[in-house]
Amino acid sequence: MALSEFDLIDRFFRHCGASRADVRLGVGDDAALLACPPGEVLAAAVDTLVEGVHFPPGSPAESIGHRALAVNLSDLAAMGARPAWALLALTLPSADATWLSAFTAGFAALAEAHAVTLVGGDTTHGPLTVTVTILGHVAATDALRRSGAAPGDALFVSGTPGDAAAGLALEQGRLQGVEGAQQLRDRFLFPTPRVALGERLRAYASGCIDVSDGLVADALKLARASGCGVEIAATALPLSGPLRTLGLKRARDFALTGGDDYELCFTVPLERVARLQAELPCEQWGYTRIGTVSAESGVRVRDEEGALTVSSEGYDHFVSG
Amino acid sequence: MALSEFDLIDRFFRHCGASRADVRLGVGDDAALLACPPGEVLAAAVDTLVEGVHFPPGSPAESIGHRALAVNLSDLAAMGARPAWALLALTLPSADATWLSAFTAGFAALAEAHAVTLVGGDTTHGPLTVTVTILGHVAATDALRRSGAAPGDALFVSGTPGDAAAGLALEQGRLQGVEGAQQLRDRFLFPTPRVALGERLRAYASGCIDVSDGLVADALKLARASGCGVEIAATALPLSGPLRTLGLKRARDFALTGGDDYELCFTVPLERVARLQAELPCEQWGYTRIGTVSAESGVRVRDEEGALTVSSEGYDHFVSG
Questions:
Q1: Do B121 and A43 make contact, defined as CB atoms within 8 angstroms?
Q2: Which CATH architecture has domain A146-308?
Q3: ipTM of model over 0.90
């Protein structure tokens, strides 16, 4: 790309997202300068979306901008951290002003909704790849981790997992004729990172992870980090109306193994469950108890007929029958 | 890539770089938790290297790992900030253990030399693209910026600019039969970010930028950010022995317009120049006075014959005669 094209891109990124007093120096110098709140630790995560791997070629630019930030906000949500600043590394085959405008709109709308400022970026020429680094903060002693779950803890998930995977299948034409298809597509194209829930869960949860690779795969990661296992009751899975139209078996398969939900999977010690449900009503906060942490390692899913075998390898080798 | 390949990669990245007490939680959860020193601000920058754009296809993996971190360390050096933590987003066509081992060795050696810890990463499948986010800290009032230069300030550059561009030309077979070719290649493959110099310059410099796009192009960015211009004396350019073997004209062209040097270009008010030179001897710190900041905008280069015309557009439209 010629210099003038980079200048164009700079204009898109120079004032993107919220305005924050703690940004001492934003986009435009060799590095951004940011004031961290005293007494808190910095929370930092990075995630990449590659065209053709993480989203179908030709996906709406607004969705790509939204998702690139959303998947990173979801990482901070899983730590109970409050997001503040983002850096964007955008590799583009060409500088198309219409595409960039829509991409930036998708990114900026979500950034503003979470009071996040874009403080740095790098634009390079190459196959479409979007990497966002998200920075936020949290009181060090309060941060949620994957490693805190203990046998007996209740297992929860937010939202209605499986919708995004069904939405992707619809986008790719692998699924057809579904009632409420647009709702499912939107769950893939514009996922909602559970930032506020993550922050509130610091007072209740023993362990937390975000669901990006699928509920079983991510629950397994949480279980392994905590040195235990989990049992999931398939009958308790929260299934959305549109997902249910696929039939119970397929809906549950999507909910258990579909990725891209960016919901939170978390554990709460039994003695705190009543207080959680009283102070953060599930109808309002949108979470569901789906199982229990077990001493035995691995993930087991039980349905009306009994136990389903789930390999400890998780998603890759998921056995559904 | 299958899960097991990602596991392999995780092993490479889990203990990479220095060990730091301020890393409260490193690679392995949804986000890293990092303790910022009180009274300092966070400095954050991101840079991407794309195969075939920023390095030739088939470049040594150790060099790619080194450069991905070096270009980011150089951004912090230009702010006078001290690096601390890095996040790595690596997009790979395949998980080749030999390649990954060499890449990680190159990254880790430089990270350890600068007491930097890798605290987060994401590995994805796609065309080879490496994005590093570097985080460090600096006293807010001390940070170097591009915008502080004023007319009359002396203009300096570190190292011997042009070597890396000549080294790249050698790597690509565009240049042949040069004495000391390996020294030039090494300046491209393994650039030295001037972190210690940047930190020390906080006490002297009025403005600073790192030289990544070429001396004229980057001096122009510094000048523009400061609302002034610069005059460069071609006769003062520090040229390495191997670069000189190309002849004076070509050597100067490389020094003025070649990229990838990752040296520092900085300005110092005249009244501080004597103290700079006394306290940071140039023979030891490797910098050279090459010109002066002017009130007139743009970059002008003068040689023995008089003025060369340099367009205010910089590198892209550089006119050498």
A1: no
A2: Alpha-Beta Complex (3.90)
A3: yes
